[in-house]
Write a structure and sequence with these properties.
The structure holds two protein chains of two kinds.
Chain A (H helix, E strand, L loop, with lengths): L1 H6 L5 E9 L2 E6 L3 E6 L13 E7 L2 E7 H5 L11 E7 L2 E7 L1 E9 L18 E7 L2 E6 L1 H5 L17
Parallel strand pairs in A: 2-10, 5-7
Antiparallel strand pairs in A: 1-2, 1-8, 3-6, 4-5, 6-7, 9-10
Chain B lengths: L2 H27 L7 H21 L2 H18 L7 H23 L5 H15 L19 H4 L11 H10 L8 H5 L6 E3 L8 H10 L8 H5 L16 E3 L1 H24 L5 H28 L1 E3 L1 H4 L2 H12 L3 E6 L4 E3 H22 L3 H6 L6 E10 L2 E8 L6 H10 L10 H7 L21 H10 L3 E7 L3 E9 L4 E9 L2 E6 L3 E5 L6 E4 L2 E6 L2 E7 H5 L12 E6 L4 E6 L1 E9 L13 E6 L5 E5 L1 H5 L14
Parallel strand pairs in B: 4-6, 11-20, 15-17
Antiparallel strand pairs in B: 1-2, 3-5, 6-7, 7-9, 8-9, 10-11, 10-18, 12-16, 13-14, 14-15, 16-17, 19-20
The chains are: A mainly beta, B alpha+beta.
Subcellular location (chain A): Cytoplasm
InterPro entries (chain A): CheW, CheW-like_dom_sf, CheW-lke_dom
Protein name (chain A): Chemotaxis protein CheW
Amino acid sequence: MATNSALATHTQQREFLTFVLGEEHYALDIMAVKEIRGYEAVTRIANAPPFIKGVLNLRGDIVPIVDLRMKFNVGEATYTEFTIVIMLHVDNRIVGVVVDGVSDVINLSDDEIRPPPEFGVAFDSQYLVGLAAVDEQLVILVNIEKLISSDELGLFEQKQNTVQE
Amino acid sequence: MSIEMEQFHNVFFEESQEHLDEMEQFLMELDLDSPDKELLNSIFRAAHSIKGGSGIFGFDALTGLTHVMENLLDRARKDSLTLTLSIVDVLLSTVDILKGILHSYRTGGDIDWSAIAAGTEALDAVLGTSAPSESQTQGYGLFEQPLLVNEPEGFGLFADEPGAEKDEGFGFFAPSDEPVSARNEDEQAFGLFEPLPPASEKPAEAETAQKQPEEKSAPQPLSRSATERKGGAAASESSTIRVDTQKIDALVNLVGELVITQSMLSMISGNDSAEAEERRLAALAELERNTREIQEAVMSMRMLPMSFVFNRFPRLVRDLSGKLGKSVELCIEGGSTEIDKGLIEKLVDPLTHLVRNSIDHGIEKPQRRTECGKNEEGLLTLRAAHKGGSILISIIDDGAGLNRERILAKAYENSVYVPEHPSDTDVWNLIFAPGFSTAAEVTDVSGRGVGMDVVRRNIEALGGRVEIESEQGQGAAFHIRLPLTLAILDGMCVAVDGQVYVVPLVNIIESIQPQPEQIKSMGNDKLLWVRDEYWPLLQLGQHMGVQARHQDATQGIVVLIESAKKRFGLLVDSLVGQQQVVIKSLEQHYKRVAGVAGATIMGDGSVALIIDVESLSSKVKTAPQPVREAS
């Protein structure tokens, strides 16, 4: 990291964690990641949409688990011993995200990030930071904070608006 | 304002609030015929501490007023001025003004200079001397600097010169992360405990409170009780709590034992011999005892004595009875009963309301009392006591009692639902209906009809209940029953479709496996005939979104539940067992879920949801009894 930033004197370097959903490669800002762990059984919550798998106990905190594969219809929502949960720290809250796997931590400078496409990705473009090519592999950079705190996921109580239920 | 300054300010606000509360309490305690010197000294010192602190921070409005107040108090304690009831009244209203100023500084609001001027004038009038004109013309700046060293004498109890000591105390503020050991040497009576773990600036803030020299002047009764501290300017819930050092020492001891047990266990681990097995069992038993004791010790840190709430009532009773021309003696019992801090903060409003009610509606005017052959002075008792696993707070008056006819008449008038042939208890409970008041006219004390329903709602929100006892002409008693703590719950674990749910034990009457002839159908709803009553049946699985193994009630277990409003049966697959659970918030990382009060972590690390009985009871559609409204 130190050497990298020394090289990139003019552009901002950021670290991203890449993960796999179905066939596609995604990446999120590593600063939002609290930890990575295997999938374990969760406690279901009444009247929650199917992509909210439930809650689990993360060392005393009751943390909701979201399956992005179900939310965005990518890949198959199967749970094997290789299924991964990324624990994210967003807005003083902890949220777990189920993905098919995590692959790498990559360094990207701002000029390596290209603007996101308007279509062709499972995520709405408002939740994307951009695209980047890493080892000839296209990686989609996700604005995970915006996605997790969005009303679309409905994970958090909406701030001002009336409750959606 | 820099962050550090803000920390000092917060400490000053806390301390001053305490001093003001003390002053008020001691002023109430003063026996005017033979004033206690020590008490007068305490009041004086409290005023002086506020003056000194406000001078340092430049809170001029406080400095000016407390200075005049201090002059008066100084003369009183030196016997050159005899305190009378009217002087105490002036002092009390000065305390009120000071509280107002403090609040303005704290919240950044505007200072009411005219009130200060009026207060200063009133004090000056009592002093009978023309006080320095600066105090009237807001030239408070003059006091700022000299005050610290102004009165080197007259501090009987201060060992050191106050100014110097203060500096020494503030020396600790430099944001150091001093460990506990540094704290203990100085102020033995105070420990600090922070219920909300993160927030890195807290240790320094804790230190400040610890080292604040004014504490030396804090008199015993209050200094032993932990005191609420408010964090940010707008924060209404305090995030820190003071804890008796003894409690912390006990906890440190227990943790020490835990470490020993742990090393014992790790020593034996891997050894399979019979002797090791025996020692392992012993160590596990030790561990269990340790865990329980640590849990108790930690919970006790959240406990505050009821006197924390009760102490504000002498003033209220005095003011109110004066205003209403009644003579009331207040009797406080069980002030040392400890109760969870979270509960205490939310108890203040309901209790205040009930006390006001008792004085306004309950206790009669002196003349009427003599006519009834009662003592001219009414007796109002505030009592707190532990009863079983709960705490019982009673507000008892020997006044007129509730008037059955008037309540009924009022209920019909406001078309409040009244059951047929209402029992006394039914009638008393009518006063909890929204918009209900029997006061003949609306006063500023009571009668607006917003109140008793709010009281009951607040108490129920805390997991408690209100009961009323009343005897016409003899008096009335309001009993508030509350759980000891909000953090731990006695629960019955039930299972539906392999998921475990926790039902609060207080709501459970019994659990039965019904016989087919006990189940009756009414439309789509099922009713259960048990205990000579029809109970509506709710399927827990249906409300929790899981598939129950048994749709048929006779195959599963029905838990009979009583909520504040309704009684119903809850159909579950099976009972898992009864246990104490630690309540965890779902909202912290997720959001509120209908029908769920929170979550807990079971022994195997899995999460179980705690059922919110009150919100579930609102799903019960039909009234359980075929009794219909009389009107």
